[in-house]
Amino acid sequence: MSNKEVKAALKSARDAIRNKEYKEALKHCKAVLKQEKNNYNAWVFIGLAAAELEQSDQAKGAYKKAIELEPNQLLAWQGLANLYEKPNQTDVKGDLADVYQKLLELYESGDKQKWCDVCNKLVELYHQEKKYLEVAETWQKLIRMKQEEGAEKTELHQLWKKMIQLLKDSTRSQDNKTGQLLLTAFEHALHSADTVPGEDHQNLYKDFIQCLSKFPHEVGRLEKACHDMMALYPTMSYPLEVLCLHFIQSGTLSEKALHCFSRLLEMDANSGPGVIGFGIKCLKENKYKEAVKSLTEGLQKTNQCPAAWHYLAEAQMKIHEHRNAVLSCNQALEALGTPEGPNFQWKNLALQLKAEILIKIADADAAEEAIKALEQIVDGSSDPMVLALRGQAYLNKGLMDQASKISQELLLSHPHLAEAHALEGLIHYSQKNYEQAEKSFLNAIERKAGIAEYHQYLGLTYWFMSDETKKDKGKALTQFLKAAKLDSYVGSAFYYLGNYYRDIAGDKSRARGCYKKAFELDETDEESGTAAVNLSVELGDMDTALSILNEVTEKARPGTAKWAWLHRGVYYLRTGQPSQAVADLQAALRADPKDSNCWESLGEAYFNRGSYSTALKSFRKASELNPGLVYSIYRAAALEQILGKYENAIATYQQILKKTENYVPALKG
Q1: Where do the TPR repeats lie (predicted)?
Q2: Is residue 36, in this structure, part of any structural domain at all?
Q3: 115-125, pLDDT tens digit by residue?
């Protein structure tokens, strides 16, 4: 076949392809290849025809052979791209990307429009594969090309915005280089915007700041962007809110942060981040109740803020609202989800705080939950503070051996750690080894004097050690006073101060004040409430006694606060108010239906009201529950006599006299 015949055969092949006679085209090409096996055009035409006949492997082989022969010729690369773009082609995306890269190289010095078309296709392909770095780098090449061609500012602005759109999901991948390219795109888009200030520009700025807030290492850039946006849009609270949230999450309370919080509250008094910031400020200034109020209020508006939940738990713990504090820790952990970066640190802090609070609740279930929380702390097994908490949790659970083992290990490895000595003291105290407990608590106080709990336990140690240490002003009393001064919410310190002033100093008035304070701090503390009421009665101050009882009974749920109902019922009985006495004593019995003394008082109240049949039932119930209550048996007999049941009355009087021969009321009856 001569050269002329080869050209004729290739022309026939081209015509056949044009006429969609692909098999015919293949025949002509094969004839050419018999003569010239390295004919570039023949291989390209075979690729085209085979692709149309859906003979993909043959087509791919033909194009690759052509590329091998002429690597810098366009036709084969274009054909291969068209082949890979067909819907029936699977698992070729990597190969297609390589083809597009080569086409970009070949078009670069020639057809700029085709270069842009291929560039768009390559970006789309990378985007589908979530290869965000490649998306960013390729799109930047496109923008550079447009800049070199002198594209208008408006077109470039749209291209930068498109790049932001393409990369908006890339922040999850935590790839720093892609992140930097995304932030650069934002900056270019902001600078190339037409209308400044304007709504589009404002929304773009918001997106930029939101994006920056996801990059922990871009603090300076975030602060600058917020300040720049505030200068452009002084009435918008958004940049200030982001800045405040950044300061809250960073865990630092600088002058800059405080200024930011107050500026935001001036702009919007109800702003969630602003109110949270004010709450944190209160917490740092030891204004715990105000802190709880503000943090709670702020979190109702901005609830996905783990650091704020942590601060709220801390403030609640300070005022001994332990159950609520545990719930706040759980909210912090929930808001953190699966933490990375700085949030990882917040998770450890939240778990440690939760364990600390659960240990203060001091029951076995809470101790079990505390142990579970401590187990989740990363690297917790090497942290002495975490180990000390674990030791306390074991102690609360009654696992003395495990607690002692941790205590001994800590004292050897960290002899200067106050918590190690405190744990040893708690173990001795629980075993009533008061002399050893005293040494341990003194060692703990020497290392960390400002912990109320250490002084409280040293005071308790002296209280139970001996009568001498209990009465010694410099021992128990001094420690309880120190504990109360360091933590004005520690109710038990005020309770024992009340005991000291009542039983040792004989100062009923001061004792009453301490019991009242203890009860105000913990309304479930019946012993303090009862003591405050009894001392008020002894001091002739019925108003105070009643105000305490009224406050408790108003808040009490049915079946609770028996002591308050009983005290007030007896008071009404003594002061000739039998109907009120009946109501209160019934409420007391709902809390404890087996209290024989309460039934006896209820019988008395019914009797005074003139309800004799009901009074009789109450006295009988009292004597059933406690056969030793002679007075109730006598009152039942007297009521039977009043009700005309003489035989029953005589039998009951005789029953009393068998037990107590000289019981005068029965003899009279």
Answers
A1: 40-73, 562-595, 596-629
A2: no
A3: 999 999 999 99
Residue with tokens 């960290």: 414
What is the residue whose two structure tokens read 């901005």? 302
**HSE of 102, CA atoms in CB hemisphere, 13 A:** 19
The pLDDT tens digits for 608-653 are 999 988 988 998 898 889 888 778 777 787 787 788 787 776 777 6
Q: What percent of the chain has pLDDT above 70? A: 96
Quote the DSSP letter at residue 567.
H
How distant, in Å, are the alpha carbons of 26, 50, 80, 93 from that of 56? 14, 7, 10, 15
185: left (phi over 0), alpha (psi -120 to 50) or beta: alpha
Q: Could you tell me the two tokens for 523? A: 């309304």
Cα–Cα distance for residue pair 91/538, rounded to 1 Å: 92
Nearest alpha carbon to residue 366 among 519, 374, 419: 374
Tell me how far apart the alpha carbons of residues 525 and 78 are, in angstroms, rounded to a whole number. 86
Do 475 and 481 form a contact (C-beta atoms < 8 A)? no
Q: Are 170 and 141 in contact (CB under 8 A)?
A: no
Query: DSSP string covering 578-638, please?
Result: HHHHHHHHHHHHHH-TT-HHHHHHHHHHHHHHT-HHHHHHHHHHHHHH-TT-HHHHHHHHH
Q: How confident is the model at residue 666 (pLDDT cuts 50, 70, 90)?
A: very low
Contacts made by residues 429-434, CB under 8 angstroms, sequence distance 24+ = 429/457, 429/460, 429/461, 430/395, 430/400, 431/400, 432/464, 434/461, 434/462, 434/464, 434/465
In this predicted structure, the answer to whether residue 84 has a pLDDT above a threshold of 50 is yes
pLDDT digits (tens, 9 = 90+) for 571-612: 898 889 999 999 999 999 999 999 999 999 999 899 899 998
Task: Tell me, yes or no, whether 146 lies in a domain.
Answer: no
Name residue, tokens 């040494």: 439
Determine the Cα angle at 306 with ends 319 and 357, to 5°. Answer: 35
Domain extent at residue 278: 196-304
What is the H or E stretch that residue 108 is in?
A: none
pLDDT at 111: 86
Is the C-alpha dihedral spanning 535, 537, 543, 548 positive or negative?
positive
pLDDT beyond 60 at 358? yes
The secondary structure of residue 644, as a DSSP letter, is T
Tokens of 136: 């960013």
Helices (H) and strands (E) counted in the chain, each on its own, are 38, 0
Distance CA 610, CA 380 (A): 69
* DSSP-derived secondary structure for 538-553: HTT-HHHHHHHHHHHH
What pLDDT score does 176 carry? 81
CA atoms within 13 A on the CB side of 110: 9
The CA distance from 297 to 294, in Å, is 5
d(CA 309, CA 331): 6
Report yes or no on 155 lying in a domain. Answer: no
d(CA 497, CA 481): 8
User: Residue 655 — pLDDT band, cuts 50, 70, 90?
Assistant: confident
Domain count, the chain: 1
Average pLDDT rounded to a whole number, residues 462-472: 93
**CATH of residue 258:** 1.25.40.10
Where do runs of H (alpha helix) occur along 192-218? 199-212
CA distance 545 to 585: 17
Give the DSSP letter string of 266-326: HH-TT-HHHHHHHHHHHHHTT-HHHHHHHHHHHHHH----HHHHHHHHHHHHHTT-HHHHH
